[in-house]
Structures are given as structure tokens and as C-alpha cells.
Write a structure and sequence with these properties.
Layout lengths: L7 E3 L7 E2 L11 E4 L1 H12 L4 H8 L3 H21 L2 E4 L4 E3 L8 H8 L4
Parallel strand pairs: 1-5, 3-4
Antiparallel strand pairs: 2-4
Helix pairs in contact: 1-3, 2-3
């Protein structure tokens, strides 16, 4: 029996879930799907300048899981840029942070620019 999958903790949904180059029609095969936990690793590591260990702690998973998610997310972003494909951020195996952003310690630290 396989191990049960651990849900990754994310702080919130992206404000926009689809990104695409302008002036082109897209078919289903032109869309690259990125999970919400892959998006969260990009947000934490690249946008909030966390390292993989800090990101793993924030998401409640192992660092090796974060490394895999981050590698997959970067490959998908590169694929969209190089091949002019649409990126859709949806789905995954996650749980939303139970607190509002102004109450979540991790969210508040990042928003106020405090230490990690």
C-alpha cells in the first residue's frame, strides 16, 4: 500500500490563474498546467527570497519535496516562455492556510519584511 500523500500548506490562491501571450488562439494541448503547490514554491523562493529549507518549513513538507516542486514549476515556466504556451495554475494536493493573511505569522513576516 503506498504512503498517503501529504497535503502542502499554501497561503493563498493566485490573483490570476491563467497567463498567456497575446494575439493567439489556444487549444487544450497548448496549455501547461501548474499546480498550486508548484506556484507556492515559486512565490516563496523567488518572490519572497526564501531558501528551500525555509520554504519547506512554511509549506509543512520535506525540503526534497520543495526541490521537486520548484524544479517542475521552473521547467513549466520556461516551457511557456520558450514555446509561447498558456500557463494555467490550478489543482494540486494542498490545504489553504487556516488563518487570514493578516493573522498568519508566516504571511505577516513576509509582508512586513521581517526575518524568517
Amino acid at each position: 500500500m503506498p504512503r498517503p500523500r501529504k497535503q502542502k500548506r499554501i497561503c493563498g490562491m493566485p490573483s490570476c490563474g491563467t497567463f498567456a501571450p497575446c494575439g493567439r488562439e489556444y487549444t487544450e494541448k497548448d496549455v501547461v498546467l501548474m499546480s498550486l503547490e508548484e506556484y507556492e514554491t515559486i512565490r516563496l523562493i523567488d518572490y519572497h527570497n526564501m531558501d528551500q529549507t525555509q520554504c519547506a518549513e512554511e509549506m509543512g513538507v520535506a525540503r526534497s519535496t520543495v526541490q521537486r516542486l520548484y524544479t517542475d514549476a521552473r521547467r513549466k515556466i520556461a516551457e511557456c516562455l520558450v514555446e509561447s504556451r498558456m500557463l494555467s495554475i490550478t489543482g494540486g494536493d494542498y490545504t489553504l492556510c487556516a488563518k487570514r493573511k493578516d493573522q498568519c505569522e508566516g504571511c505577516r513576516r513576509r509582508r512586513l519584511g521581517g526575518g524568517f
